Known about the structure:
Blueprint: H1 5-17, H2 21-28, H3 32-41, H4 76-80, H5 87-90, E1 106-107, E2 116-117, H6 130-136, H7 143-146
Antiparallel strand pairs: 1-2
Helix pairs in contact: 2-3
Amino acid sequence: MEWTDDTIARLRALWGEGLSTAEIGRRLSISKNAVVGKAHRLNLPSRPSPIRRTEGDATPRPAAPKRAQGPTLPPLAASMGAPVPALRAIMPAQKFTTRATPCCWPIGEPGKPSFHFCNASAAQGKPYCEEHAAIAYVRVRDRREDAA
């Protein structure tokens, strides 16, 4: 867009009337960002933000509620009326051993009745069994190997 003397004069007049940048843009058939940029380059007086509150507002903003200090709920033992024994005292030690997690390799088409997961024991630290981990985790080839 080219800013002609006539367009600049219209911009100054509309700006002086106090119209919004969007409205000026509509009247000049340009974007509001073009209006803002040209007004800035012409050093036109700045406008108060429509978002900021002025001192003359009739309804002041309510104060934020006071934040609670410390824990907001009483300790569990206090609410039960008795001390809570340690978890290890309740459950035998063998309950804390890690179980084998099942392989989550999908077999079949999701949404079909025959769809299921492998469910064999997963390899240590992986979501798949050894067979499916070999398929899922393939070593990335170095591109320099191909450049020979």
